[in-house]
Amino acid sequence: MSGLSIEIPGLATLIDALPQLKAALEKSQPIKPLGVREAAEFLDIGTQEVYRLAGARLLPGIKVGNGWKFDPRDLSDWVRFSALVGRQITVDELRNFQEKDKTPAATGVKKGL
Questions:
Q1: Is the pTM value of this prediction over 0.85?
Q2: Domain membership flag for residue 111
Q3: For position 3, what pLDDT does the model report?
Q4: Are 60 and 71 spatial neighbours (Cβ–Cβ below 8 Å)?
Q5: What is the domain range of residue 95?
Q6: How far apart are CA 111 and CA 104, in angstroms?
Q7: With contact defined as beta carbons under 8 Å apart, do 99 and 92 qualify?
Q8: DSSP summary character for residue 10
Q9: CATH number of domain containing 92
């Protein structure tokens, strides 16, 4: 008996689109904000340095009660753009870089929706 071959219309197109579908699904998942300890671990610095940088508006975050919350995408962008400039950038500089970059990871918003 020879191998059975079944033609499914559009299957090849669907298979080709799987990487893009997976990426879109991952981007649509809610991002869990990091606390001070997680941000410190993410950046490989001490918690006191996180408090200092965030309080000076050098590190992108939001003060919630007595603590801080950080979006890991913003922290990644902060590291990336700081490395490009050669120094720690301010939150305002980060937002300007993100606006110019206009990547979904940088903005957290899908354009055109």
A1: no
A2: no
A3: 64
A4: yes
A5: 32-102
A6: 7
A7: no
A8: T
A9: 1.10.1660
> Rounded to an integer, what distance in angstroms lies between the CA atom of residue 28 and that of residue 34?
18
Tokens of 37: 């300890």
36/51 Cα distance (integer angstroms)? 7
Q: Which residue(s) pair with 64 in the sheet?
A: 67
Burial of 61-86, coded b for 16+ CB within 10 Å and e otherwise, reads beeeeeebbbbebbbebbeebbeeee
Residue 73's pLDDT band (cuts 50, 70, 90): very high
Neighbouring residues of 107: CB distance < 8 A, sequence distance ≥ 6: 98, 99
Rounded Cα gap, residues 34 and 22, in angstroms: 24
Q: How far apart are CA 13 and CA 5, in angstroms?
A: 18
Higher pLDDT, 68 or 15: 68
Apex CA 32: angle with CA 96 and CA 24, to 5°? Answer: 75
**80's tokens:** 């990336």
